[in-house]
Specification:
Helices cover 31% and strands 14% of the residues. It has 211 residues and is of the alpha+beta class. The protein has a domain of 143 residues: NADH Oxidase, CATH 3.40.109.
Length: 211
């Protein structure tokens, strides 16, 4: 794990149970430093996605990738596929990605209902790999699917899923007042008993009880 900026300390999670460092340290900033991401680190992120588990090993994920310092035109095309609100801050990220999933299994052309889950798992693995290398990732639901399709001539059978901004942590002061607040406020999460059940829906699992 690389040394993280001092400004990151307020965002490190305080889990109730021991977890991997990368899980506690991962969060989604909007402020990115004006510093290119090394191509080797991008490859390592995508390699982590490559080795993610998936239903029947279908590996339904696909990614578009653009680094601003390598190909500014490709970067601008990808930036234009985000919603206006996300473009306002994501334009500072040195690397942008777009995730997709294949809607049907390749072997029998039957619908793959797990494909959205699987591309999410791949992007999660990619994000944790990035965190381990001192990078930060912000995934975005705010994309323009129709713009994505027309810009890249996406074939039938593939669905755009999410935008992804990648880079090194930047100064929150580069953001609007509202966005700055989200960069510095402590992270919170639902407790385990709110989403882990056993006997019936809404009944917390006894496994959650500590001795």
């Amino acid at each position: 794990m690389q040394t993280l900026p001092a400004s990151h300390e307020t965002k490190v999670a305080t889990p109730d149970h021991d977890v991997l460092d990368v899980v506690a340290q991962r969060w989604s900033p909007r402020a990115f430093a004006d510093r290119p991401v090394e191509p080797e680190k991008i490859r390592r992120m995508l390699e982590a996605a490559r080795w993610t588990m998936s239903s029947y090993n279908e590996q339904p994920w696909r990614y578009l990738v653009a680094a601003r310092d390598r190909d500014p035109d490709a970067y601008e095309r990808l930036l234009g596929c985000l919603t206006e609100g996300n473009q306002s801050w994501a334009q500072n990220a040195p690397v942008l990605m777009m995730s997709f999933y294949k809607t049907a299994f390749s072997g029998n052309d039957q619908p793959n209902r797990c494909a959205p889950h699987d591309v999410g798992a791949a992007s999660a693995a990619m994000t944790l790999q990035a965190t381990e290398m001192g990078l930060f990732v912000h995934q975005m639901a705010g994309i323009q699917p129709d713009v994505v399709r027309s810009t890249y001539d996406v074939p039938d059978g593939f669905e755009p899923m999410a935008g992804v901004a990648v880079g090194y942590l930047g100064d929150p002061e580069m953001l609007s007042d509202g966005q700055q607040a989200s960069e510095t406020e402590p992270r919170t999460r639902k407790s385990l008993d709110e989403f882990v059940f056993q006997g019936g829906w809404g009944e917390p699992s006894p496994l959650l009880k500590t001795a």
